[in-house]
Specification:
Elements: E1 3-13, H1 17-20, H2 23-36, E2 41-49, E3 54-60, E4 63-70, E5 75-83, H3 89-99, E6 104-114, E7 142-150, E8 155-168, E9 173-179, E10 183-188, E11 191-195, H4 199-211, E12 219-224, H5 229-234, E13 242-247, H6 250-259, E14 272-276, H7 279-285, E15 291-297, H8 311-320, E16 321-330, H9 338-352, E17 357-363, E18 371-378, H10 390-399, H11 407-412, H12 418-423
Parallel strand pairs: 2-7, 12-13, 12-15, 13-14, 15-16
Antiparallel strand pairs: 1-5, 1-6, 2-3, 3-4, 4-5, 7-8, 8-9, 9-10, 10-11, 16-18, 17-18
Helix pairs in contact: 2-3, 8-9
Length: 425
């Protein structure tokens, strides 16, 4: 061979968009193509980006195979470089064309490292051996597959061992990943919703603060909350006669029952009235003053949750609250979604009153920036701090072995950083 390596630059057109957005399928296809071409795999790293696109590389003993996909165009760009003459890169080209269901592909081959222009040097191989290599000098194979949620300014990446659930529902893409750091992770349209390892922060904070400051809540309504965590926490309180949960997407419920059972543990509770329907419609049809607590456990203001971020909807929530009723919502990250965060509090105060709406914070590692806010809006005399019984809270948290909420956290959550207080003043 007159050169050190062969380099093929590849383009695949009219591929399956679903395949090009499936990081596990891409990983297996790339690794399979490398092995069938005669290569020895050392390492593979793949990232799935939100909402779509996959980047990855398979490092082989003979060099590498790299890829980036554009599912929205059905297009993939692949780079195959092999050293020596033991690997046939054209075998990999043909395999990937079939795996991606490409309508057609194009490629150009370059010979790299003309031997006539090179002079081989002597050096001590043992002194330069990688510490991760075996004693014989053979490389140790490793694997990295990543889910990445990102926008143009920020990203969160989580290493995972594959996808456990992948369904396009009538409303959104529902997926569950088996992550190494946070256990099973639920995403909707590529956005992180909850994980086994940090879900308790969100669910404890959105439920126990209103319940423990209401005079005597008997009936609660949860809009959204298909993972079941909010219902689970509400039903720790014996005083409730009924918790009504209205989730629009039955696939979210199905995914969490199968793969996040610790979160979805209350679906069989006899006090839970689970309704698969449009939460906006349910609220509109509900009777005046029919709920003591309303929790809007929604996703971000896109897709099926978009209608939950309107003045009309919150006026309806106000109407169905009892005289001492409390509405609690997740109200976005002050850092990440500042515009929506400000607008939410303007809307709530225009409906409930300037002094009836309070912001509190919690810290959730898998949410953008980690800092997450909740709103507490009181229709009557209920107040998150004035009506707070620290001893009752302490006893409740201890009895149920809560992991985040306690009497100190309850009070501290309302002590806002200056920049947050100024945003909603």
């Amino acid at each position: 061979m007159a050169s050190l390596g062969r380099h093929i630059i590849v383009e695949y057109y009219n591929c399956s968009s679903e395949i090009l957005n499936d990081v596990v399928h891409i990983e297996k296809s790339m690794e399979g193509a490398a092995e069938d071409a005669g290569a020895t795999i050392i390492n593979s790293t793949f990232h799935h980006f939100s909402p779509y696109g996959v980047s990855g590389v398979v490092v082989i003993q003979e060099s590498h195979l790299a890829i980036h996909t554009w599912p929205e165009y059905g297009y993939a760009s692949v780079d195959i470089f092999t050293c020596g003459d033991t690997v046939n890169p054209w075998v990999a080209y043909q395999i990937l064309k079939e795996k991606f269901e490409a309508g057609h592909g194009s490629a150009v081959e370059l010979l790299r490292g003309e031997k006539a222009l090179l002079k081989e040097r002597d050096f001590d191989i043992k002194a330069m051996r990688d510490e991760k290599s075996s004693e014989e000098g053979s490389p140790i194979r490793t694997r990295d597959v990543w889910f990445t949620e990102r926008d143009d300014k920020i990203a969160l990446s989580l290493k995972h061992d594959g996808k456990l659930y992948d369904v396009q529902s009538d409303f959104q893409k529902v997926e569950v990943y088996k992550t190494q750091a946070y256990g099973n992770l639920l995403t909707l349209d590529g956005m992180v919703m909850t994980s086994e390892k940090d879900e308790y922060v969100y669910h404890e904070m959105i439920t126990h603060i209103p319940t423990l400051t209401h005079p005597k809540p008997k009936r609660a309504l949860v809009i959204g909350g298909g993972d079941g965590g909010t219902a689970r926490e509400l039903l720790r309180h014996d005083g409730y006669d009924e918790v009504v949960m209205v989730e629009i997407d039955d696939k979210v419920i199905e995914a969490c029952k199968e793969h996040l059972p610790g979160i979805a543990s209350a679906f069989d509770n006899p006090k839970l009235n689970l309704i698969v329907d449009d939460g906006i419609k349910y609220v509109k049809d509900a009777a005046d003053g029919s709920f003591d607590i309303v929790i809007v456990d929604s996703t971000d203001p896109v897709g099926p949750a978009e209608g939950l971020f309107t003045v009309e909807f919150y006026k309806e929530v106000y109407r169905i609250l009892s005289d001492d009723g409390i509405m609690v919502t997740q109200s976005e990250s002050p850092r990440f979604n500042s515009k929506v965060f400000r607008e939410i509090y303007q809307v709530y105060r225009s409906i409930f009153g300037q002094d009836q709406v309070h912001c509190y914070l919690a810290y959730i590692p898998t949410y953008p920036t980690g800092m997450w806010s909740f709103s507490y809006s009181s229709k009557g005399k209920a107040h998150p701090l004035k009506d707070f019984n620290a001893e009752e809270s302490k006893a409740f948290a201890k009895k149920h072995g809560l992991k985040y909420y306690n009497e100190g956290i309850h009070q501290a959550a309302f002590a806002l950083p200056s920049f947050v207080a100024e945003m909603i003043s």
